[in-house]
Amino acid sequence: MEKDIQDKSRTQIKKEAEKLQKLGEQLIKLPIRQLERMELPDDLRDALIEARSIKSKIAGRRQRQFIGTLMRDVDPEPIRHALLQTDSDLPIESEIVKKTRRWLDRLLTDDPAVMEEFICACPGLDRQRLRQLMRNAKNEKITGKSSKSLKKLEQLIMKSMSDK
């Protein structure tokens, strides 16, 4: 390894490190579920998940550099291969999002038949929680408050759709 490093110029080493950092940035953008499916070291996975929650621009840059440093110890080819596979899975994810939005719009129409249809489509769903979130989301829409319940309802629908 040391001989390999000695053969490379400093510029070449920096370019490779930059490529690994960009690969890490692509991993940051992936959903957490897909990150968990990939075979990554625990410290790298934790750093990727933490990077998603960082709001500060400078701290985010430092975290991306840290991820690039961790990526140097990992073989990038399996990660690139897994990224190519997840790119082919993205249409499935977007289809789930589209279905979730359609159900969300339908559930907020005050039609009890739609709720029954959704409960039949997703067995094991907590009816009381669904009704409560629907009621709160409608009230938030009317009063113009923040849409916490709407987001929670959307998450519940998405979880139910992905569990099917």
From TrEMBL:
Whether Cytoplasm counts among this entry's keywords is: yes
Q: Which Pfam families match?
A: DarP
Q: What InterPro entries does this protein map onto?
A: DarP, DarP_sf
UniProt KW Transmembrane helix keyword? no
Q: Name one GO molecular function term.
A: rRNA binding
One Gene Ontology BP term is: ribosome biogenesis
Annotated transmembrane regions: none
- Cellular-component GO terms for this entry: cytosol
What keyword terms does UniProt attach to this protein?
Answer: Cytoplasm, Ribosome biogenesis, RNA-binding, rRNA-binding
HAMAP family per UniProt: DarP
Name of the protein in question: Ribosome-associated protein
Q: What organism is the protein native to?
A: Desulfobacula phenolica
